[in-house]
Design goal:
Elements: H1 8-14, H2 40-47, H3 62-75, E1 79-83, H4 86-95, E2 103-107, H5 112-124, E3 128-132, H6 138-142, E4 149-155, H7 167-176, E5 181-184, H8 189-192, E6 202-206, E7 220-224, H9 238-241, H10 252-256, H11 260-272, H12 279-289, H13 292-312, E8 316-320, H14 330-336, E9 344-349, H15 353-362, E10 367-368, E11 378-380, H16 392-397, E12 405-408, H17 414-426
Parallel strand pairs: 2-3, 2-4, 4-5, 5-6, 10-11
Antiparallel strand pairs: 1-7, 6-7, 8-9, 9-12, 11-12
Helix pairs in contact: 1-3, 3-12
């Protein structure tokens, strides 16, 4: 009899760490850099990737791997790799299949840090990027592709503009050009959207956000669906399909099959760049994951009420939240996020930039912080803070209006959240 597929709530609580008889029920923190073996041959087999096991935490660690397994199960992927930050996850996801002379295509509605990574740092490494509007037609987006294009990238829910990506459209475009689609699923989380089910090939997360949910650790994750056929595009991805002379001539796609992409991240990028999370951070992340399914429901219900309140307020010029009827992203949200999107919304007040600043400075319970997407309601003015390094033209391309306020609704009592917003708006 086939085992019943587990629900996401059960995966949040149970997956990843399955203790054997006499082992601790709670995921243990293996805070050790090294692991002992009885003879040299056993250690050599691990270095040759002939056996699974642990020898150095920069490459693998039992605590980190348990949490990676849980995240892979939540997304429906074949494997996952944890990183020290969401930025590292995005970099690793792209750099694992790109090198100098390559090109990527990315949505322009993405997190400012990712925009800079693609627009500045990757260019210094010889990887070019063309930004496209996800609202453009498939033909217009397709025109941005070149013979050396290796990746198409987008965000399920863009940060901070809160636009919803048409994942199926992006997947058709990517696969039509023989490249994988990478989707940053940080805001939606797998509780509200699983991009692999809509054609995405690789998913990234800033686990610092909802997955942790308590602003207690910084981390990231890269998850592979195992669906993209690297061998079918062998000439385009030699790093996966040709022998790796830096690792005993291993050909990842042939030796590791569907785990080729994740194995290469660990064997090459973690080996050489080392952006790993500490086991203690992974332990904290796991605690957050255990309640992710409960918290996301509360974030969404609170945000829906707050968005509806703000839309009707006379001092509010506009509100972007995918759950609002009439919102430009409502139909896409109903398709991809029928159970709710996230707790983040974008809004603008009637007035100017200074109006937004005065409003934020008048808040009492709601704090101004760089962070977003945790249990506490918080607020930010991206043009002045997270995106201040962008030019006016780049802000416009990224969908960041000068008056845009990013409000991240937490899991407090919604009446208290609205009360604080009301008194701050009354100051205007």
């Amino acid at each position: 009899m086939m085992e019943k597929k587990k629900g996401l709530g059960t995966i949040c609580v149970q997956e990843g760490w399955r203790p054997k008889n006499g082992q601790p029920r709670v995921l243990p923190i293996v805070e050790s850099t090294t692991f002992k073996y009885d003879n040299s041959e056993e250690m050599a087999d691990l270095f040759d990737l002939k056996k699974d096991g642990y020898f150095y935490t920069r490459l693998q660690n039992p605590t980190n791997d348990a949490v990676a397994r849980k995240i892979a199960a939540l997304e429906g992927g074949v494997g996952a790799v944890l990183t020290s930050s969401g930025q590292a996850a995005t970099f690793y996801a792209v750099f694992n299949i790109c090198e100098a002379g390559d090109h990527i295509v990315a949505s322009n509605e993405i997190y400012g840090g990712t925009y800079n990574l693609f627009n500045v740092t990757l260019r210094k490494l010889g990887i070019d990027c063309t930004f496209v509007s996800p609202k453009s037609s498939e033909q217009e987006i397709g025109a941005a592709f070149k013979p050396n294009t290796k990746v198409l990238f987008g965000e399920t829910i863009s940060n901070p503009s809160c636009d919803v990506l048409d994942i199926e459209k992006f997947a058709r475009i990517a696969h039509g050009h023989g490249v994988p689609l990478i989707v940053d699923n940080t805001f939606a989380t797998p509780i509200n959207c699983r991009p692999f089910e809509w054609g995405a090939d690789i998913v990234t997360h800033s686990t610092t956000k909802y997955m942790d949910g308590h602003a207690s650790q910084v981390g990231g994750a890269v998850v592979d669906s195992g669906h993209f056929d690297w061998e079918a595009h062998a000439d385009k991805y030699p790093g996966l399909t040709q022998p790796d002379e830096s690792y005993h001539g291993i050909t990842y796609s042939r030796q590791f099959g569907k785990m080729a992409y994740c194995t290469k991240i660990v064997s090459q990028l973690m080996r050489d760049l080392g952006s790993i999370p500490s086991p203690f951070n992974s332990f904290l992340l796991n605690l957050g994951l255990e309640s992710l399914h409960l918290r996301m429901a509360r974030h969404c219900s609170n945000a829906q009420e707050v968005a509806e309140y703000l839309r009707e307020h006379p001092k509010v010029a506009w509100v972007h939240y995918p759950g609002l009827r009439g919102d430009a992203n409502y139909d896409l949200a109903q398709k991809y996020l029928p159970n709710g999107s996230c707790g983040v919304m974008a809004l603008g007040l009637k007035g100017d930039k200074d109006t937004a600043i005065r409003f934020m400075d008048s808040l009492k319970m709601i704090n101004i912080v760089t962070h977003v997407a945790d249990a506490r309601t918080c607020v930010l003015h991206p043009a002045s803070h997270t995106h201040r390094q962008l030019t006016d033209e780049q802000l416009k391309q990224a969908g960041i209006a000068p008056d845009l306020i990013r409000l991240s609704v937490g899991i407090e009592d919604v009446e208290d959240i609205i009360s604080d917003l009301r008194q701050a708006l009354a100051q205007e």
